[in-house]
Amino acid sequence: MSLPLPQTVRGDSASERLRTLGLELPVLAGNAYYVHHRAVGSSIHISGQLPYKDGELLGQGVVGRDVELETAKDLARHAALNCLAAAVRAVGDLDRVRIVQMLVFVASASDFGLQSQVANAASELLIEVLGENGRHARTAIGVAGLPLNTPVEIQMICTAV
């Protein structure tokens, strides 16, 4: 049985597709302790991004206990959007971003077990916006806790095309 694949949203460019979804890339706040991205050869390593929007953390708690699955999916999409913002800082244009690998951390109850569904929301956003350049290798894991008690953190490796 094959599963339906997420589809790219209509639009000539990744930026247009992002706008069609009603989204825009956020401005990432600076940090004295780390950078949002680091290029090593042709790979661009994106630091773990939390679900911030306009400088505000959008949620706190443990998925499967304090946070519902649908809320966690929305938070994962916001974290992925922040990763895209860091990638664009690195390569200069959203149409030049290709996602290689995504690592999704989900602060979850020990019996939750649906971390991959949380990660699917972020994967779907990447494919909707970037098309084939958004398809990636992925790991989704449950953890006991994350910074600032956030439910989701996403780290990526990408490259410029």
Described by strand count, sense and barrel closure, the largest sheet is: 5 strands, mixed
Order of secondary-structure elements: HEEEEHEHEE
Mean pLDDT: 94
Helix content: 25-40%
**Cα radius of gyration in angstroms:** 15 Å
Quote the beta fraction: 25-35%
Contiguous helical run count:
3
Structural class: alpha+beta
Roughly how many Å apart are the termini?
33 Å
Strand tally = 7
Uncertain regions spanning at least 5 consecutive residues: none
- Shape assignment: globular
Instruction: Write out the strand line-up for the largest beta sheet, numbering strands in chain order.
Output: 1-2-7-5-6
Domain Endoribonuclease L-PSP/chorismate mutase-like: 17-150
InterPro entries: Endoribo_LPSP/chorism_mut-like, RutC-like_sf
Protein name: RidA family protein
Description:
The chain is an alpha+beta fold and 161 residues long. The chain is 29% helix and 26% strand. It has 3 helices and 7 strands; from the N terminus they run αββββαβαββ. It has helices at residues 14-20, 69-91, 115-130; strands at residues 37-40, 43-49, 52-53, 56-57, 97-107, 137-143, 152-160. A 5-stranded mixed sheet has the order 1-2-7-5-6, with helices on one face. Helix 3 links the parallel strand 5 (97-107) and strand 6 (137-143). Helix 2 (69-91) crosses helix 3. The longest helix is centred in the middle third of the chain and has 23 residues, at 69-91. The model has no long low-confidence stretch (mean pLDDT 94). This is RidA family protein. InterPro entries: Endoribo_LPSP/chorism_mut-like, RutC-like_sf.
